[in-house]
Amino acid sequence: MKSIPKLIRRFVGIMTLSIILLVILNITFFAIVFVKNTSAFSPWDMADHVAAALQLTDDRYSISDDIMTKLKEENAWAFLIDDNTRQVVWQTDQLPDSIPMQYTLSEIAELTRGYIDGFPTFTGKSQNGLLVLGYPKDRFWKHTRASWDYHFIANLPKNTMLILVINFIFIFLIYAAVDSKLLHSIRPITNGIQNLSSGMPVCIKEKGVLSELAEKINQTSEILQKQAEQLRKKETARANWIAGVSHDVRTPLSMIMGYAGQLEHSIHLSEMERKKAAVIVKQSHRIKGLINDLNLASKLEYDMQPLTMKQENAVAIMRQVIVDFMNMNIDDKFPIEWKTADTLSACYINADQDLLKRAIANLIQNSINHNENGCVIYASVDDDNHTCRICIEDNGIGALDEQIDRLNKTPHYMVCDTNTIEQRHGLGLLIVKQILKGHHGKILIDHSEYGGFKVVLIIPKETDL
Rounded to two decimals, what is the model's pTM? Predict the structure, then answer.
């Protein structure tokens, strides 16, 4: 099934997108936190500024008011260690009492990179000594033993990507392990839904995280199977009823036709009585044709009519049907014109010859039935790369736009309303539609360019010919 791989791809896509968004969110969060908690200035730069601003005048050190204001704003303090004596020779007023006034070289080295009595200190070079800038204990945190292997720093980008890939794989395995049970439950569910759509019975094991859904699908399958069985029984009863009624009607109808035929040619009856008998014969033949059509429509509808499909020439079939009608058209009220191109001698399709003849004959007879005053019937066969198009049209009375639209859109042409004229279209066109359905083709009904009615049969051609 295509649904399972699609579902898995969806899960993997969601997981991948979630990880990417999570990484981006974490990076953004840490960047915001880093920027928010980083001072706008460097304490090392501040120490250099204070050292540069410290001036010696008349053996006294002084500093500008601006620098002192900044130190107070930062709650910082500063002092100067003389290069020669290593004693504190200058200090700010807020210097803590615990700060020593004398330093050794080792103590100077320690404060340069670390702390004095827990206070973070930063140094700057003054003219006569080393300026030390100190901050509150909770203001900065310093790396006092920072040393990194060169190869570690050089390989840091590669190692970072490797860690990210390992994390991704690890998360994927966790995700797959968690969802494997769900995917295992989804597969029979999707198979069951697919079988439901095709009318097959479904029985899914009602266990796992989707047990409730499986139960509902099983119940739905049971209901559909019961409905299908009831429908089959109704269709069988209907087909049997039609066959039974048709059989029962044929016997008395044959007697009516026989006696009416005798009366039609009886010399003991008046001319008017013989004409009435002729009408009875004509209408009896019509009833017999309708019974035959009803039986064929019923068999086609319920797939009881076997189709003998083989390679046939649609042009030859069309010519044969036309010849049969021309031989019956004694009074020439319904001439048939052949509109097929002279260059087209064959159009091969996979068809049941008898049923295709019946469909063409029904269309020609339809033009005859609806044009009592006569009309010209035009027959043509067109061939393209994929289909064979059989067209029957006339220059008769035609049909209204609403009737054309209804005939094209109505799934069942055996309409039942008060319009008895329109019902005369129904059964013949229904049989044509059912025959075309068995040939995997379609029927198009439209106005003819000659002013009458037009029907086109579109049948797929044999692909291997």
Answer: 0.46
Between CA 115 and CA 120, with CA 119 as vertex, the angle to 5 degrees is: 60
Structure tokens at 413: 């042409």
What strand order describes the sheet that includes 88-91?
Answer: 88-91, 77-82, 129-134, 119-125, 115-116
Element (H, E) at 393: strand 387-394
Q: Could you give the count of Cα atoms lying within 13 Å of 282 in the half-sphere of its Cβ?
A: 7
Contact call for residues 299 and 236 (beta carbons, < 8 A): no
Residue predicted with more confidence, 175 or 442: 442
Identify the residue whose tokens are 């014109």: 337
Beta bridge partners of 350: 311
Residue 67, pLDDT above cutoff 80: yes
Residue 312, helix vs strand vs coil: strand
Residue 277 contacts residue 260 (beta carbons within 8 Å): yes
Helices 3-36, 156-197: inter-axial angle, 10-degree rounding: 150
Please name the residues in contact with 389: beta carbons below 8 A apart, sequence gap of 6 or more. Answer: 381, 382, 383, 456, 457, 458, 459
Q: What is the CA radius of gyration of the chain?
A: 50
pLDDT digits (tens, 9 = 90+) for 98-118: 999 999 998 888 888 889 999
Q: How confident is the model at residue 389 (pLDDT cuts 50, 70, 90)?
A: very high
Q: Which of 287, 303, 201, 211 is nearest to 250 (CA)?
A: 287
Angstrom distance (rounded) from CA 30 to CA 107: 36
CA 47 to chain centre: 67
Average pLDDT, the chain: 81
Residue type, 167: N
**311: left (phi > 0), else alpha (psi -120 to 50), else beta?**
beta
